[in-house]
Amino acid sequence: MKRPPLLEGEDLLPDPVQRRSIAKRQGLKAAALASFGERGYEGTSLDDIAGRATMAVGGVYLHFRSKRQLLLVLMDELLERLERLDLRPDAALRVRPALHALLSKAFAADLSYLGAYRAWSEAARMDPTLASHDRRIHRWTISRIIALFQGLQRFPGARPGVDAAALGRVMDMVFWGQLARAAALRPRELREWIDVTADLIFHALFTDGT
Fold first, then answer.
1. Within its chain, how far is the Cα of 40 from the centroid?
2. Which residues fall within 8 angstroms of residue 187, CB to CB, at 6 or more apart?
3. CATH number listed for the domain at residues 74-205
4. Domain residue limits, the chain
5. Tens digit of pLDDT for each residue in 151-196?
6. Mind giving me the DSSP string for 81-140?
7. What is the pLDDT of residues 75-86, one digit of tens each?
8. Model pTM?
């Protein structure tokens, strides 16, 4: 399953080609991530984002047509990062350390976009189109998690009869729920959560003697 095409049908402005314009666009996205993370979607205005990026609000409209479109671009970038994660299990690796490394990589990709997810989860409750996109996002991430679990079930020591689809749906909720509260966690707490989650998945799929 391909990642949801969030930007399909959006009247996007062309990407800048000059170095200065590229830097300004990147600055706007960084400012939006920070503001969305601190204030959420409704609490953030384009004036806030422009001020944080040290430019006039009119400069925002040279790159994005609206706050909503800026959020869509950021969420599309987050999904692109997740899509680049290689979730194919490697039989040459020990399962538990591999799960830990995978979760660490997933959160490394996600945490820099924490502001986008906080704003997205808020905006999707009010915008039917974004809510539809959100459902597609979850179907996509669930399908990838299930494929990972089904691949792991072919490894030696896997428990017979585990419902990989049900486990995948649960872990998808856990993953996104943890991402929503990750900003409040200290680095040590996040590492502990990754340890516990890797162990939980391992023991759900493999016998204790593995």
1. 16
2. none
3. 1.10.357
4. 74-205
5. 999 888 899 999 999 999 999 999 888 887 776 778 888 889 888 9
6. HHHHS-----TTS-HHHHHHHHHHHHHHHHHTTHHHHHHHHHHTTT-HHHHHHHHHHHHH
7. 999 999 889 888
8. 0.89
